[in-house]
Amino acid sequence: MLSNRLRQIQRQSIRAFNSEAKIWNVYLSGEIHSDWRSVIAEGLQKKNLPVRLTSPNLIHEDSDDCGAIILGMQEERPSWDRLGARMNDIRNKTLLSQADIVVVRFGDKYRQWNAAFDAGYAAALGKPLITLHPPEISHMLKEVNASANVVCEEPEQVVQTLAYVILGELPTTPKDGDRFVPIADRLGKGNPNP
Amino acid sequence: MLSNRLRQIQRQSIRAFNSEAKIWNVYLSGEIHSDWRSVIAEGLQKKNLPVRLTSPNLIHEDSDDCGAIILGMQEERPSWDRLGARMNDIRNKTLLSQADIVVVRFGDKYRQWNAAFDAGYAAALGKPLITLHPPEISHMLKEVNASANVVCEEPEQVVQTLAYVILGELPTTPKDGDRFVPIADRLGKGNPNP
Amino acid sequence: MLSNRLRQIQRQSIRAFNSEAKIWNVYLSGEIHSDWRSVIAEGLQKKNLPVRLTSPNLIHEDSDDCGAIILGMQEERPSWDRLGARMNDIRNKTLLSQADIVVVRFGDKYRQWNAAFDAGYAAALGKPLITLHPPEISHMLKEVNASANVVCEEPEQVVQTLAYVILGELPTTPKDGDRFVPIADRLGKGNPNP
Amino acid sequence: MLSNRLRQIQRQSIRAFNSEAKIWNVYLSGEIHSDWRSVIAEGLQKKNLPVRLTSPNLIHEDSDDCGAIILGMQEERPSWDRLGARMNDIRNKTLLSQADIVVVRFGDKYRQWNAAFDAGYAAALGKPLITLHPPEISHMLKEVNASANVVCEEPEQVVQTLAYVILGELPTTPKDGDRFVPIADRLGKGNPNP
Amino acid sequence: MLSNRLRQIQRQSIRAFNSEAKIWNVYLSGEIHSDWRSVIAEGLQKKNLPVRLTSPNLIHEDSDDCGAIILGMQEERPSWDRLGARMNDIRNKTLLSQADIVVVRFGDKYRQWNAAFDAGYAAALGKPLITLHPPEISHMLKEVNASANVVCEEPEQVVQTLAYVILGELPTTPKDGDRFVPIADRLGKGNPNP
Amino acid sequence: MLSNRLRQIQRQSIRAFNSEAKIWNVYLSGEIHSDWRSVIAEGLQKKNLPVRLTSPNLIHEDSDDCGAIILGMQEERPSWDRLGARMNDIRNKTLLSQADIVVVRFGDKYRQWNAAFDAGYAAALGKPLITLHPPEISHMLKEVNASANVVCEEPEQVVQTLAYVILGELPTTPKDGDRFVPIADRLGKGNPNP
Amino acid sequence: MLSNRLRQIQRQSIRAFNSEAKIWNVYLSGEIHSDWRSVIAEGLQKKNLPVRLTSPNLIHEDSDDCGAIILGMQEERPSWDRLGARMNDIRNKTLLSQADIVVVRFGDKYRQWNAAFDAGYAAALGKPLITLHPPEISHMLKEVNASANVVCEEPEQVVQTLAYVILGELPTTPKDGDRFVPIADRLGKGNPNP
Amino acid sequence: MLSNRLRQIQRQSIRAFNSEAKIWNVYLSGEIHSDWRSVIAEGLQKKNLPVRLTSPNLIHEDSDDCGAIILGMQEERPSWDRLGARMNDIRNKTLLSQADIVVVRFGDKYRQWNAAFDAGYAAALGKPLITLHPPEISHMLKEVNASANVVCEEPEQVVQTLAYVILGELPTTPKDGDRFVPIADRLGKGNPNP
User: Fold this and answer.
1) Which of A25, A102, E50, F94 is the most exposed place for a label (fewest CB within 10 A)?
2) Residues in chain A within 8 Å Cβ distance of B114
3) Which ipTM was obtained for this model?
């Protein structure tokens, strides 16, 4: 692992041309039943990354009832739901459309069709897409992941990805730990003089 | 129901300015485990509607294995899946992007994240969207339906919607049967001289 | 008026580079209570112009009730209206978006907000816009007309405009009849050597 | 109503991931004969919402005469009107195109075709649209409302909608007052584990 | 003229909803042989308008020779010219594309094809366009002016137009001086209750 | 010149992958006082090229008076001109926007600001641009030519360019006649093994 | 391999909803020193696929000298090259921009920067991209391949990909021959009830 | 050279209308084995130019291994490479798409297909493109250079180009030194009164 530590030093001295001046807008879409957004927010804060996080409204009841509270109740569920969903839509599509990067989280519970909808919406707009989900459900997500730039299993990997994308910073410990071997060591230099 | 039959006659005599000359491209996305596409295809054929139907590849095994068969197998599932999904992507996104109308079917089984993804993709492209699903799952689909033009429960309603959109033809029997009362009869003319 | 007749002859011999091969799609939006669409359709047919006319559904009751007939009735008027309007939307926005030219008719009765809405939609898409209305209401339409290419008072002028735009054909009798004097005769050649 | 108050508390503690850092540009289009814009402006100020309001020029005489005053009078009304309307157009289309949200107000007096035109323009640009009008004229506005995200009756509802969209804040008193029952209480949880 | 002064007072008290917070980017294209840009710059400064002016490089010799000086001389004139013009292109198209408003000045000397080119470029991008030229050459500019929002004869009118567009401020003395009569006085209110 | 004749034979046998199936739409903009359009039309016909030519209306008087004839005369020249120019605009911008290639002709007489305007419009739309003008005025056109793909002096060169672009056909006699030496003969192969 | 043959039969009976009616435009970019385009053309013809192939001009000398032959020789190589390259650009960018699918071939000889340029151009336009190259140079192409839908080693795989994309037809012999095992057999069904 | 010095003085007094207020975003793509980026960065700093430089990640090993370090190692090189390249893609395409100007450097070693890919991507987005390479490889780059605004041989020329584009500042010593003669002196004024 020595080579990794050496690289880390090298990185710290060659941070020219990174884009620290830019604030990156990152939209966090999808599952609202676990604390993955907080894990990402804390990770970014620890690393002091220039990121502005946005998300849909996270209070499930409010996102269901907002329309009925402000505009009045509806007799039938589809009308009730539509009233609220169209109101949430203002926030969600505006923030999503103005994001630099869209992160979409899928869990193994619930159908989360809105998460997949947001992923499709982001893909059609050409937004860089990061998906985040447990590996067990990857086959069901193959079409979504085929449009993603990065597929993460843990929120920490999202933070690491953002740190690398924005500052070029890589984690000191690779995911595979001591088993990690750089590609050049393993398979040789890949870019021979033409 | 007399007034309905009278209207039907009136319709048949005022078909000017409909767009019969145009072939409408309709992309049928989503669930592949029931025969909803055939129901729509037969319905359109009976009515002789100028519609060209397209869809993703409907053979589940082929859409899983196409990449591995043509390009070679992959060790890990995510790589295997990605190879196939990216190949399917060529067909799906091309046909979806060139469609006039996108119909997305959700069933009560399976997660069908690709259906929701396609709906989001279509919405971001500004395509008219028709969703088709049993009413029991409407709340889970509220964000998707909020971007839809029409929400159908049965494939026959998709055919009726296309017949109306393209030719102005309405079914002789309304969904609510004899209980149906035109809005003007029920609530009065809605468009008073200003 | 001799000069006018001479010009007419000249025109007939210089029809090179016109765009007869192209079918022009023209969307006729707005008022549905008078026969202006038929006047235009007959005028185009007499001149044998390569135009394909489209329009929204013209049967008022159907455009109100289509959603309720196909999808079921709604308790409240706004839900009833929304169901139908979103269904009509598929036809209207598709045909409008695919038109080469959009004609919007305003009458002196009714508010016709949908006509003005279509005009704004067409303007934002950069479509050439022709408005058609009696001169008495021109002040109320000043913002709409400010985005129009041509403002007509009579449907015959729409036909004449299309004949000129597509074939370069001008009416043998100018609107101002014998009082008409070509600009060059009246004010001199306007394009002096640089 | 206890549950409502509890929710209010919950909201105040979970304001992470709202987009307070963003200034939302909101364009207020339409009727200029009542004080609805001031009501909205004051409501936003009270809630200290990060909103920048813009509007067309609100002095009717100036918007009629601006072209004639700066560029000179015109003989005929259509030319006079066009001169002014094209000048107003610079302001209106620039601010509308750069808005995050467009609010359009319709009154029961006057035709307000420019309001409907702006709504169509906003819809074609994909802007979130909020309409504001008395319920009596809703049928005449059905095509416009079909493209709207939210349809309000009172300017206070626009303020409440913006507060919810931007901060997730909902009014302590629902529109239907004590009769209000959350959807989950009324119809059960809508999102069963798949 | 009393009514004019009264209006002026009214204006000063109703400046809500103007867009003072926004900096307007205005690109000044065209003729470089007179001081029209300075006249505009000074006029804007006097009125303290929130405008950022940009322009192409104004030193004729530099815009001709920039390529040859930095990249080396070329044997033939077309190559020499192309080298410089492509370099100027970076500045011009970037600033023009990022402008809110494009002003193009035509003089009665020189051909100024680049001015007309910029006007066409701006029109295709949907930029509000203000042309500025002596009335004598208006016929030659009819196609260009047909895409313009405002056609000015004097640079002062450009300043007045920007003051009106941005702040709603109109000149105390109309162009036609005491002969000026508001349209409502001359032709009656144009917007009768429908 | 032997090598040239050999190449010609080689070309005739390797016409695979040309795009003969495609009809190329070519818009001919600019000067209307010489027969350059006919020269191009005849040249294309001789070579049987799959090209559909379009152009603005070529009868100067009609393009000046069309608005006044159909819609009525205007008192002032700018209004008269605007009426006509906006009507011509429908044809010109539609055909220009739908063209594959735009050819713009400049002559040494007249200002032809509309030609330069069309060139700018085409450039902003990303259309391939061919300019055609006598070499004497090339410096005045440097900004326009900097956005052109090909700069021709004679209409025959436009025909030759189209024949080459579409079919790969090159003239048997190079412009420089017997003095022509292929680049590979003159300066050596330019593409060494990497 | 029985299961494969069974699947083949199944495929032949379920060809509904394929897009045979559509002609697919496929642009073949890149290396011109081997016969890969002919291999693809013949493969497509054998399978009778509805594909229209286009390509850049394939005669190297002509693509170098076209500008000099039609427009005249240039003293310096960069000017000579530019003249020709800008002329080729008309064909290449037009056909590439109008393609449904872009195939880019890289060989192990020559630098072929134009191939990589075309790939980047296609990626920015959102075109489905198929790359074709020997596996030895894959590391050097990693950024290009990261934007590709499919990475082929042999032209036959391009034909197979197109047959699958357009008709759903898969080769009877998988690339890995008898070693091939469908993913469902190998790793289990991937899409459990939700 | 006197005239050059005089021009320099003239320039310093006519800096109105330059765009100093604007920060120009410049993306530096391509070769990472020499210090060209530092030469440009230092040159810009000396001249105090309002430029924000961005670039891809410059540590070759990190850009190869980032995906494997964060997400885990892959068995096969193409999968390994794809994982990293898609991660780098987030940074590269975001910064490139948000740049005002894109500079692409090609060296005589290595194939640098990603540099050509970036150039094509930038060209399709309509970004002003500056290429930087030794003159020996210009023929191989002819298609790329045909889309470039400026072709430089040395990084200092990039700095000089940016200084001219942004501030109108030209180097005191032309590239051709004392041999330099302004075009007007050499070939006469090029822009005769029309």
Assistant:
1) E50
2) 116, 142-144
3) 0.91
